[in-house]
Amino acid sequence: MARYTESVCRQCRREGVKLFLKGDRCYTAKCAVVKRHTIPGQHGQSRQRKMSEYGIQLREKQKCRRAYGISESQFRKYYDMATNMRGVTGDNMLFLLERRLDNVVYRLGLADSRPMARQMVNHGLILVDGKKVDIASYLVKPGQTVSVRDKSRDMENLKELREQGASKPIPKWLELDADKLTGKVVAMPQRDDIDLTVEEHLIVEFYSR
Fold it and tell me: What is the pTM of this model?
């Protein structure tokens, strides 16, 4: 699978919003979106022109895909899965993305960013119901427990989590025990649990063309 190797801050600048790909740095004045208001490239300022309907839909799709850090083929699969589910396609797609194991690790505060959460999962540091799961796209279900393996509990960010508790709000569909570094999926995610500013109906329109 193709992997993005350039600065992730370029992705935030291209979409013009914070995608929180660098953890706590995104909340400071060092954030690239705050420091530089133009899109990447030598002629970034001159490229800011009125977009077509297709361009608006494309940018919304790219913003969502980059926020969750997945490839185009993966993103399309989630859309296809969502179209075969009951309910609103756009909402279903976001719910599937939220249930990814790497996103759950991030939402619980066990990692500072989704890229860091994905790395933790890929390296086998995360357990689901006591068993190692090293697949970032694994979809969690209500009732399942997500935890950090014992050998990895001394990571710096996890020490802070145990000592100070969660520094960011935990979605109501998840529960966190900061002392034990354990989270539980108590329900399915809902639309108001998703803090990413995205107009999912534009993504549906993009793929429905």
Answer: 0.79
Burial of 145-172, coded b for 16+ CB within 10 Å and e otherwise, reads bbbbeeebeebeebeebeeeeeeeebbe
Question: From the CA atom positions of the chain, what is the Rg in Å?
Answer: 18
According to DSSP, the residues that pair with 182 across neighbouring strands are: 147, 177
Distance CA 209, CA 207 (A): 6
Assess contact for 204 and 168: CB atoms under 8 A. Answer: no
Residues 6+ apart with CB under 8 A from 43: none
Residue 99: Cβ within 10 Å count: 19
User: Average pLDDT by consecutive 10-residue portion of the chain (209 residues)?
Assistant: 51 54 50 52 55 89 91 95 95 96 95 91 96 96 96 85 80 93 95 88 93
